[in-house]
Amino acid sequence: MDIVEELLKGNRLALSKAITAIENEYDEATEIMTKLYPHTGNAYVLGITGPPGAGKSTLTDKIAKEYRSQGKTVGIIAVDPTSPFTGGAILGDRIRMNSLTMDEGVFIRSMGTRGSLGGLSHKTADAVKAMDAFGKDVIIVETVGVGQSEVDIVKAADTTMVVLIPGMGDDIQAIKAGILEIGDLFTINKSDLPGADKLVREINMMLDLDSFMTDWRPPIQKVVANQGEGISELVGSVQTHRDYITEKGILDQRRTKRAKDEMLDILNSNLSRYIKSRIVDTGRLDSYVEQFQQHRADPYTVVGDIMSEMLR
Amino acid sequence: MSNEKIQAELAKYEANVEKAVAKFPERKYLPEKRIYTPLDVKGDEAYAEEIGFPGQYPFTRGVQPTMYRGRFWTMRMYAGFSTAKASNERYRYLIANGGTGLSCAFDLPTQIGYDSDDPISEGEVGKVGVAIDSLADMEVLFDQIDLGKVSTSMTINAPASVLLAMYIAVAEEQGVPADQLRGTIQNDILKEYAARGTYIFPPKPSMRIITNIFEYCSKNVPKWNTISISGYHIREAGSTAAQEIAFTIADGIAYVDAAIKAGMNVDDFAGRLSFFWNAHNNVLEEVAKFRASRRLWANIMKNRFHAQKPKSMMLRVHTQTAGSMLTAQQPNNNIVRVALQTAAAVMGGTQSLHTNSRDEALALPTQESVTIALRTQQIVANESGLADVIDPLAGSYYVEAMTDRIYNEAAEYIKKIDEMGGAVEAIEKGYIQKEIQDSAYKWQMDVENKRRIIVGVNEYIDENEEPPKGLLKIDASVGVEQCKKLADLKAGKPINKMTKGRDNDAVKAALAELKDACKKDESENLMPHILKAVKTYATLGEICGVMREVFGEYEAHVSL
Amino acid sequence: MDKKVRVLVAKPGLDGHDRGAKVVARALRDAGFEVVYTGLRQTPEQIAEAALQEDVNVVAMSILSGAHPHLFPKVVNLVREKGMKDVLIIGGGVIPEGDIPALKEAGVAEVFTPGTPTSDVVEFIKANVKA
Ligand code: B12
Ligand SMILES: Nc1nc2c(ncn2[C@@H]2O[C@H](COP(=O)(O)OP(=O)(O)O)[C@@H](O)[C@H]2O)c(=O)[nH]1
Ligand SMILES: [Mg+2]
Description:
The structure holds three protein chains of three kinds. Chain A has three domains: 1-39, no CATH class; 40-248, 3-Layer(aba) Sandwich (Rossmann fold), CATH 3.40.50.300; 260-310, no CATH class. Chain A is 48% helix and 13% strand. Chain A has helices spanning 3-9, 12-23, 29-36, 56-69, 124-134, 152-156, 171-179, 196-209, 231-247, 250-280, 284-293, 299-310, and strands at 44-49, 74-80, 89-91, 106-112, 138-142, 159-164, 185-188, 220-222. In chain A, strand 7, helix 8 and strand 8 form a beta-alpha-beta unit. The longest helix of chain A is centred in the last third of the chain and has 31 residues, at 250-280. Chain B folds into three domains: 3-35; 36-56 and 188-458, TIM Barrel (Alpha-Beta Barrel), CATH 3.20.20.240; 66-185 and 490-553, no CATH class. In chain B, 50% of the residues lie in helices and 7% in strands. Chain B is globular and about 85 Å long. The termini of chain B are far apart. Chain C is of the alpha/beta class. Chain C has a single domain (6-128), classed as 3-Layer(aba) Sandwich (Rossmann fold). Chain C is 41% helix and 17% strand. In chain C, strand 4, helix 4 and strand 5 form a beta-alpha-beta unit. Chain B binds chain C through residues 108-109, 112, 114, 120-124, 127-128, 196-198, 236-238, 324, 327-329, 361-363, 437, 440-441, 444, 447-448, 454, 457-458, 467-468, 471, 473-474, 476, 556, 558, 560, and chain C through 13-19, 22-23, 25-27, 29, 35, 37, 39-41, 43, 65-67, 69-71, 94, 96-98, 113-115, 117-119. Strand 3 (89-91) of chain A pairs parallel with strand 2 (34-37) of chain C, so a sheet runs across the interface. Bound molecules: cobalamin, guanosine-5'-diphosphate and magnesium ion. Cobalamin sits between chains C (15-21, 23-24, 60-62, 64-66, 90-94, 112-114, 116, 118, 121) and B (105-106, 108, 128-129, 155, 195-198, 233, 236-237, 323-324, 326, 360-361, 363-364, 444).
């Protein structure tokens, strides 16, 4: 099977295989990405982040259904934590989206973080591109949701939604620092539980103090995801934000920034792979270290030499 | 001996033992201490308040004053498979052999409110219980069984209202009025969400149906146990003994709360609540669990809900021996396990008991295996002496200490669940499921690491064991047969014992009426509408279908 | 290169026995696999489609309700029809000895019955998976 050709024709298995190749860094991954690249840039990417159990997966399910009712096709990437000890993972988001499985206009893929710490996996952005090239109109990315370090999502998404729930007590203070500045939209899920209004007030207060404030004031919306309440309004706000950033040129800025970051990332990882193959795998590193220990050389000079050797 | 003296002697003993066991590898991982002494139990002052006498608050020693000095527990064998006709034969066999109550197992489509001809039922009809599609099947299921005499327990939950209505209708046909009917419906939806899996509707409408049943029965079927609040399944899903009673009593609290909220007086329904415990392998721990659970429930009913009638405070319990402890390997060993579990249930003071068969881990039991399981109860009752004295283990330092320990552990869990907002919330959060799963995983790992020895499984393995023969097999033709009959029924042709076909217009009208009633608030009792629909021979799937349309379906909360 | 074994642990049909499936899912996670668990009451069609979207290497089904003769082969066929030729398909639960040859004939690679240590399942997957 020619994965790219089949993917572009709409073959779901090909899309699935492409994501695997990307995720596992198979040799053909670069070629796949190269060929898919020209077909990307059409999908709108919505990021959903927030603490574990906030209802991100439930919300993703309901938002996807809303987009489907508007006739849009949806891709979903749901990221769960990989155990640093065993390397294993339970990818548990899909279970909240079971009723989407038989909808041909939806494609759900679960990913483990596999060592990445920023709330996504290193390969999430490329997986998004594969879905984009496949022709999905909207791609929803659900982060791990560990709280403070969920910064990768901003790089990957056009609009970032932060989901919070009432009754988190002091947690909100802790979360505030990391998450407040990344939210384009704030969603208060589980508004059926007591304390939702209080949380709205708290976030409002924090936003008032926020020095990053542009003239986009993130809306704060109450929803009850598991009962589907407030979802169409929420999707409406995503559209409003999209219109706003499009009109103001912010979307372009974000995508430009993303292209730069991406380019640097690729360069970085290629370089480190190259260095590893030349320095580590060849045993040169070990022999340098031996010289350092005997004080016959120092790392600064050696690195300087290597750089000039390699960049010649 | 004074406490100081005991303390000193104990210290001496411990020092000696340490020396002695230094030579042997002691089984140190065991959770319990080596020995228990008077230091582990409360003094005589606590006796009246925490132990007392059988039939008296707090019922630690049993709910009736006579217990088995009056009559034995009800020997109630859970059975049901294939068609109503086949199950009816098994029931009559059990009664003929000294079974003293019936217990109906339904197949999964029935338990989840689907007809046998629903595409989703394919491959499941009659497999793990009897298939009931309409009143016409129920008539056959209880053919030649006098519903005025027998007490019948039905393991049915989400569609409990429908099966109860069918039972009332069959009784009526037999000329037995509803107020003479004795039996139990399980009707415990919360543990379905947490541990058993045959839920249909979300919590809110489910709780409404349950309180509707409480109310209807308190007026019309007063001798019926309207719910069997079940720890059995929670334990089988992997919980510990303390978790079993904690989560179940927390569910019980939620039901009582719901009924009170619906405007009922606690003493009007609490006496009809019943419980369902597991009898596991660790005999003494199980006895302590039964005793702790009675004390805990009595305390809660009295102090939290201010019940006045002693009956409202009694935790009456049906018990089933732990199927999950029975092995596929060397299945005859299971007979011994079941005997020990039976001993636990009896010393624990159960009101009725099902004993599992030796082929538990292989298939539904054959008649021969069921007979051995029933005989096991009869042997324990008549030959072992265990049923001769009430609460025979009271006063054992170990059993009393463990009764306290389990009581406290369970009370601690209940407190935590209260703080979460009650059992419904705790289930919605996945908390209870997670606790159960953690225990289940720990058990599995303990077995795999041989911290727990299971004879025939991880030790004393018989390498040359032959695959068992003569297991019960359910013919795939059951589904075909059931669907054919259902097609006839729906086409207005008489089936089974019906004298004339059903009137499809009447069915439609009854279903429409039921639908309207569902849409109203909980003060509209659904039972009369369901009873009416059942009598038109509307099918279970049709009735639950209407309810599904109004109430929606539950989405499970899984977290691993 | 990081080739992770991905497993779909699935509960086909109406069966609610999930203790075994959950224990197995956790054990597979602890063995370093990526595990997607479907939850209860999945149709064969849903299972096959989830397997496709997740590009799993293994589909692991659990049935204790006796519906395996009907449901296991159905899942195998649907998975193969979707072009997933290499996916290892295994099953477990209360499955009578006598039914196992037919299930294997239908394409279930191995069937694990009560009392199986989860480590056996892990070993089997490691030995037979095509990743
Ligand atoms: C526990 C249990 C229950 C619990 C389930 C709790 C839960 N959440 O899982 C409760 C009490 C709720 C229950 C209820 C019922 N049960 Co039940 N139950 C059992 C019991 C006693 C043990 C099963 C178990 O969990 N064992 C422990 C786990 C860890 O082991 P396991 O599931 O076998 O899994 C191991 C292997 O089989 C294998 N494995 C299993 N799945 C998989 C999957 C894969 C991919 C792999 C690789 C391996 C694998 O690996 C695991 C580790 O060793 C069995 C009998 C028995 N001893 O096996 C009956 C049994 C399965 N139940 C039975 C029945 C009939 C029912 C009911 C349908 C009764 C009724 N009519 O209402 C109900 C309905 C349940 C429902 N919703 O479907 C029958 C099924 C008969 C049949 N198949 O012919 C059995 C066999 C008992 C019997 N002989 O009558 N049950
Ligand atoms: N009460 C309430 N519970 C909800 C709501 N939305 C989701 N949940 C529940 O919250 C739990 C966690 O949801 P999940 O989507 O898995 O959260 P995630 O970890 O953020 O992806 C599940 O049990 C949901 O059913 C809601 O609006 N109200
Ligand atoms: Mg999630």
